[in-house]
Amino acid sequence: MAIQNRIIKSCMNSFLSDYRIEEKDESVQFEHFVNFCIVSKYQLDAYQDDPLLYEAVHTGQGGDFGIDGLLVLVNDNIVTNKEQFERYRWQWEV
Q: Whole-model pTM above 0.70?
C-alpha cells in the first residue's frame, strides 16, 4: 500500500521520526500512526509517557485487513499489562 495523500504521509513521517520508529513496511507504519491518532484522542500525552506504547497497542501484521490495534482502559488509565490492571482496577474518580 502506497500512501498517496501527501499531508497524511507527512504527518505519519513526523510521527515515525518523533518516536524513532524504524519500521520499514509502510502499511505497518500507517497502522502505528492510526493507532497513535486514536490513542491520543483518549490520552493526549500517552505516547510521551510511554514511548513504546505503539508496540503494546499494535495487533496487525500490515496489509492483513484485520484489527490493527487494541487499547485497554481501566478507570480512564491505559493498561498494557497485568500489574497496571491490578493497580487501576479499584480506582475511580469521585
A: yes
